Amino acid sequence: MTAHLHALVMNFQERRLPWPVRLYRNWRARTRVAALSIYDEFTLRDIGLTPGDIFRAMEMPLSRNAETALRQRVAERETW
Q1: Taking the model in full, what pTM does it have?
Q2: What value does the mean pLDDT take over residues 55-72?
């Protein structure tokens, strides 16, 4: 629950920024997520991700932060 609350607070703070700043931050986050795609499935599972998580995060529009989406995905998986 704490990770979910943290994600909500961060999302609220991001929305208060001017749109060019958000767009730039989201683009930078996407490049960091793209860097994870070099790892194989076993390494990604060690850090709590799957190749599908990376793919879904990269498919999101630039209006959404890919890192935040990955964190939310991991938090959802941990609650199962």
Answers
A1: 0.73
A2: 91
